[in-house]
Amino acid sequence: MKTAVVILNWNGLQHLQHYLPRVVATTANADIVVADNGSTDESVEWLRREMPSVSLILLDKNYGFAEGYNRALPQLAGYDVFVLLNSDIEPAEGWLEPLVAQLAQNEDVAVVVPKILDDKCRERFEYAGAAGGFIDILGYPFCRGRILGTVERDEGQYDSVRDVMWGSGAAFCCRAELFSSLGGFSSEFFAHQEEIDLCWRVWLAGYRVVGEPRSKVWHYGGATLSVDSPFKTMLNHRNNLAMLYRCAPTAQRLLVAVVRPVLDVAAALSYLVQGKRESAKAVWRAWRDFLAWHSRLAKERKAIRRDVKREAPIYYGSIVLRYFCGKKTFQGLDERLRN
């Protein structure tokens, strides 16, 4: 299967200098492409000078993660597989072959994701992706290897190949044709949770998302937006609400409509108590945008759920409640996940 490894870059010269040589060294049987999102540092000049084997796609400005890939990938004709890779990823030897093999051997698999470890503490899972992710009934994401703020050490406990609800966009292998036919990422998301939204639509279209632990990468993380960024807070709240409204079954959507406003008010008040006024405002801005999008999302929901072929595996409980009852790891959740 003809494969392109595509790295979206925006002012990431230091990460490219550190990580890209390792990507080149560990990647066989694939073309490596950097899609530059209108960088103003010396990324493009360095790539042209130091990495002539890497192809370049130049975008005229920073379109964010979602629209950046939506604009870059259609310029890569003739590929069967796209592997989206953050600029701060170090792959292990032999990382690519198990991902592509899953697609080659299983016609109903559309997305495959590796095991993602933390480059700052290499024995631990990485917060945002770990060994593949799920959401709970209220839309809160969690992973095999990370529940809320608790990140596990990788001790082989998630070394089985299995279906997951979503995989991190930091290292995301997908069928090129299906990415295109589903419309790619939701461009209005800009960044954050667009990969969960896409994976949910993959499931509804009748395909599967698989975690492949024989493939392993290390992710530095937080290269673009810090954990405490109010903008990141707004994106996560807004995009999560939009995703749930578009993709969730009716019963789940109605439950979210009742419970999430209460929880989000509580989150905003918590930010205020901590002195994080801008983060509290970010929650309000998220709801403002979501309500402004409401009529458009309703139309998109009808299209997305018109012909559901398979529901995504979701935890029909509260991961937050489970966490505060002392269950802080993924073990024991398998039997509670259902389509």
Q: Tell me the distance between the termini.
A: 30 Å
Cα gyration radius (Å):
19 Å
Number of strands: 16
Binned, the helix content reads 25-40%
The profile of the biggest β sheet is:
10 strands, mixed
Look at the helices and sheets and give the structural class.
alpha/beta
How would you sum up the global shape?
Answer: globular
SSE arrangement, N to C: EHEHEHEEHEEEEEEEEHHEHHHHEHE
Q: Hey, roughly how much beta strand do the residues contain? A: 15-25%
Provide a count of the helices.
11
Give start-end ranges of low-pLDDT stretches: none
Name the average pLDDT. Answer: 95
Care to describe what's here?
A hairpin with a 2-residue loop joins strand 10 and strand 11. The strands form 4 sheets. Strands 1, 2, 3, 4, 5, 6, 7, 12, 13 and 14 form a 10-stranded mixed beta sheet that branches. Strands 8-9 form a two-stranded antiparallel ribbon. The protein has a two-stranded antiparallel sheet with strand order 10-11. It has helices at residues 13-26, 43-50, 64-72, 96-105, 176-181, 194-204, 230-247, 250-273, 277-292, 294-304, 319-324; strands spanning 3-9, 31-37, 55-59, 81-85, 89-91, 109-118, 121-125, 133-135, 141-143, 146-147, 150-151, 162-163, 171-175, 208-219, 314-315, 337-338. With 339 residues, the chain is of the alpha/beta class. It starts with a strand and ends with a strand.
Kindly summarize this structure in a few lines.
The protein is of the alpha/beta class and 339 residues long.
Spell out the blueprint of helices and strands.
Layout lengths: L2 E7 L3 H14 L4 E7 L5 H8 L4 E5 L4 H9 L8 E5 L3 E3 L4 H10 L3 E10 L2 E5 L7 E3 L5 E3 L2 E2 L2 E2 L10 E2 L7 E5 H6 L12 H11 L3 E12 L10 H18 L2 H24 L3 H16 L1 H11 L9 E2 L3 H6 L12 E2 L1
Parallel strand pairs: 1-2, 1-4, 2-3, 6-14
Antiparallel strand pairs: 4-13, 5-14, 6-7, 6-13, 8-9, 10-11, 12-14, 15-16
Helix pairs in contact: 1-2, 6-7, 7-9, 7-10, 8-9
